[in-house]
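For reproducibility, we list the full input for the coenzyme A complex.
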Amino acid sequence: MFAIPLGDGAELRPLEPWQAEEFLAHMDRGRDYIGRYVGLPGITADLDSARAWLQAYADKTAADTGRLYGIRLEGRLVGGVLLRVFDTATGTCEAGCWLEPDAAGRGLVTRAVRVVIDWAIEARGMHRVEWLVAPENTASVNVARRLGMTREGLKHEDDPYRGVRQDTEIWSVLAPDWRAARASGVRDPAQLRPRSA
Ligand SMILES: CC(C)(COP(=O)(O)OP(=O)(O)OC[C@H]1O[C@@H](n2cnc3c(N)ncnc32)[C@H](O)[C@@H]1OP(=O)(O)O)[C@@H](O)C(=O)NCCC(=O)NCCS
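The corresponding predicted structure, in tokenized form, follows.
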């Protein structure tokens, strides 16, 4: 089983259907916190649905249409990073993330998503990585900023969540900007070639 060190005792590892019980226990620890803006807790409410969701990502991995990785802190599953969309035909993918509350505020997600974006761009030739987020989700907007993404716009009331239509901000980073930032040692591609928001 591979593990990519993220520093400070954290690692990025595969997250697979056989780990459904551990995943459910993790989700139970973070259900309220994670569910404020994203529907993941709702679709992984019990062991069967948790296993089905992990299996859906195992199927996406096999079909090369998505990816899912767990973030572990001192061995314990505390969050995850996913490529919800992974379209090799267009070179476009969409990244997402979550943490249980005790693991937030340490930079784990930003480091984990950097690993996944590096892989998507450098190993898989993706041109565009998107980040979709509710405008009120400041912590996630800040992750997009720290990754050097550019805010492209707002989809109005496109996301019916818990009975209310929510707006969605679209952020992205393009491969040339990601590479230029890495080559120059700058973490934030937007500092090199700002795109209009
Ligand atoms: C979105 C979410 C994952 C962000 O978590 P997070 O802990 O704020 O993000 P990171 O792991 O990148 O950590 C960054 C924070 O750690 C701090 N930090 C502490 N030590 C750090 C270090 N060594 N390196 C980097 N950052 C560090 C940063 O200052 C930052 O805090 P700040 O935003 O208050 O300044 C989390 O809020 C969450 O799970 N929300 C619910 C699910 C969700 O909304 N997912 C996103 C859907 S779009």
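The chain has a mean pLDDT of 95. Residues 14 and 69 are 5 Å apart (CA to CA). Both points were considered when choosing residues for closer inspection.
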